[in-house]
Amino acid sequence: MKFARFLVLSVVALAPFAAFFPRALASHIPEDLLEQQIVAKEREELDALKAGDHKAFANLIADEAIFLDPRGHGTKAEVVEHTSDFRLIDYTMENIKFVRVGANSGVVAYKLTQKGNAHGHEFTSVAYASALWTKRGGKWVCLFSQETPAR
Q1: pLDDT at residue 104, as a whole number
Q2: Most buried among 41, 122, 133, 134, by the most CB within 10 A?
Q3: What is the CA radius of gyration of the chain?
Q4: Distance (Å, whole) CA 76 – CA 12
Q5: pLDDT for the residue numbered 31
Q6: For 4-32, what is the mean pLDDT?
Q7: Domain map (residue ranges) of the chain
C-alpha cells in the first residue's frame, strides 16, 4: 500500500515536468487509430505524386530515409530527384497489413497497383510495398519504403 501511494504521489509530482521527458510519459496512440493515421499518410504520399506536388511528397520523407526497389537503395535526395519527372495517374492499395513498431510508429504493407507516367512514358505496374512511418515533433515522416514487383 505504501508503494502504491508513493507511485501515485511520484507521478502527480512529476506531471508538470512531462514536457521535458515526453517519451517517458507519452500515451500510446490506440492501435486502430495509429493504423488509420499511417495508412492515411501513405495515401497522402501517393496522392502528392498523383497531384504532381513533389514538394509535399518530399516533406513527408525523413531526411535520413532509405528507399528500396529492384534497382537498389536510395536516399531521400535521390528519390525526390528521381520522382521529379514522375506522376501517378491512378493507384489502388489492397490487402493492407499493419504492425505497430512503437508508441508513435508502425509499418504498413500492401499490394500497390499503379498507373502513371515516368520520364515521358506511361506505365502500369503491380508491386508489394511497405513503409515505416513515425511521428516526430507532431509531424509524420516516412523513414523507410520498399517496393517489390509482383509476379
Answers
A1: 94
A2: 133
A3: 20
A4: 43
A5: 87
A6: 45
A7: 29-149
**146 pairs with which residues across the strands?**
68, 130
CA angle 13, 19, 22 (to 5 degrees): 100
Contact 113, 96 (CB under 8 A): no
Rounded to two decimals, the pTM is 0.80
**Taking a C-beta distance cutoff of 8 angstroms, is the pair 30, 36 a contact?**
no
Which pLDDT tens digit goes with each residue over 76-133?
999 999 898 999 999 999 999 999 999 999 999 999 999 999 989 999 999 999 999 9
Nearby residues of 116 by Cβ (< 8 Å), 6 or more positions away: 49, 86, 87, 88, 89, 90, 91, 122, 123
Q: Which residues contact 89 (CB under 8 A, 6 or more apart)?
A: 50, 115, 116, 117, 122
CA distance 106 to 59: 19
Q: Give yes or no for residue 53 having a pLDDT over 90.
A: yes
Backbone phi and psi for residue 29, each to the nearest 5 degrees, phi listed first: -70, 130
Place of cell 521529379: 84
Asked if the 29-149 domain carries CATH number 3.10.129.10, the reply is no
Sign, Cα dihedral of 115, 112, 70, 76: positive
Instruction: At 111, list the grid cell.
Output: 499490394
